[in-house]
Amino acid sequence: MEFRTAGVIGGGAWGTALAQVTAWAGLDTLLQARETEVVESITARRVNEAFLPGVTLDPGIAVTADLADLADRDIILAVPPAQHMRATLEAFRPHYRPGVPIVLCSKGIERGSLKLMTEVLAETLPGAPAAVLSGPSFAAEVARGLPSAVTLACADEALGEELLWTLSAPGFRPYLATDLIGAEAGGAVKNVLAIACGIVEGRGLGRSAHAALITRGFAEMTRLAVALGGRAETVAGLCGLGDLVLTCSSPQSRNMSLGLALGQGLSVEEALAGKRSVAEGYQSAPAVRDLAAALGVEMPICTALAALLNGETSVDMVIDNLLSRPLRAEGG
After folding, report:
1. 198, 161, 202, 200: which is closest to 178 by C-alpha?
2. Which residues are catalytic?
3. What residues contact 110, with CB distance under 8 A and at least 6 apart?
4. 156: burial class by Cβ within 10 Å (0-12, 13-18, 19+)?
5. What are the tens digits of pLDDT across the range 260-319?
């Protein structure tokens, strides 16, 4: 099969950056944005001033507010916030053509149902060929053409190979995997851990504590992925460890910047005030905690973060409780 056109659902920073990638890859690209001001800004000035200011977009990117306009696209990249994925795909269902691949580019676990995004897709667009795109990539850097590498997971290896070449662009290098669950679990958990790393930075706890949190957080991520049916080696790649290192190491990360604010003494409400872009870790933390509990997976860092974000505890109590946990072998 050959893909010549792409539709990107979601006009946030990451959706806009991926539209840039597909245009650079030679695809006729149509970006759908829910916000009228985004459509107007891109149409008039070739800039998404609301979510990706300062980045001039490729002239080949068209933009629309209407999901129906994506009905004739050869491939769809779904990039709404994870907690809005179900509603977005349901709204797109009347316009979906059977057999068109859906590349899921949002990271998170659905609250309430505790479903991964591939499960949400299977329930809303049954039979749609699925792929997952995940890895260490800041939208602003990708949109400017700076080098990045990501995981493209697809259970159908032939389709995955075609998507791999289709979505490869100058500066944007996807690596193929077949383990969708591992790719999804890594992307969902790393956002929660990034908030924790931001708290460490905001509290001035030092680089040693930062490194320890990333390492022990990676162990939690791996345990959850394996319990869900994913593979540890997938999580050790770009979509897990790679994304974790990036998101936990720079205040460019919305999740880490939220943690920084909390570590510096702001309340959750104060830290979120005025933020237009979504910190997915804030939305996913309760779902990660509940899913871990349902599976019997020990995830003390993510559990403590969910309690903190829900107002059940304080930053100091979280730190004290984690440091007072029983000593154990590192592999446990």
Report:
1. 161
2. 190
3. 82, 83, 85, 86, 116, 117, 119, 120, 287
4. middle
5. 999 999 999 999 887 777 688 999 999 999 999 999 999 999 999 999 999 999 999 998
Q: Give the Cα separation of 20 and 34 in Å (integer).
A: 18
Q: With contact defined as beta carbons under 8 Å apart, do 223 and 297 qualify?
A: yes
CA distance 105 to 98: 20
For residues 20 and 29, give the distance between their C-alpha atoms in angstroms, rounded to a whole number.
Answer: 8
| Separation between Cα atoms, residue 256 and residue 136, nearest integer Å | 14
Tokens of 61: 């990117």
User: How far apart are the C-alpha atoms of 114 and 284, rounded to whole Å?
Assistant: 9
What one-character-per-residue DSSP string does 78-109 give? E-S-GGGHHHHHHHHGGGPPTT--EEE-----
Q: What pLDDT digit, counting tens, does each position of 140-170 carry?
A: 999 999 999 999 999 999 999 999 999 999 9
| Long-range contact pairs involving 268-277 (C-beta distance under 8 Å, separation at least 24) | 268/308, 268/309, 268/311, 276/50, 276/51, 277/12, 277/13, 277/51
Q: Write the DSSP symbol of residue 253.
A: S
What pTM did the predictor assign?
0.95
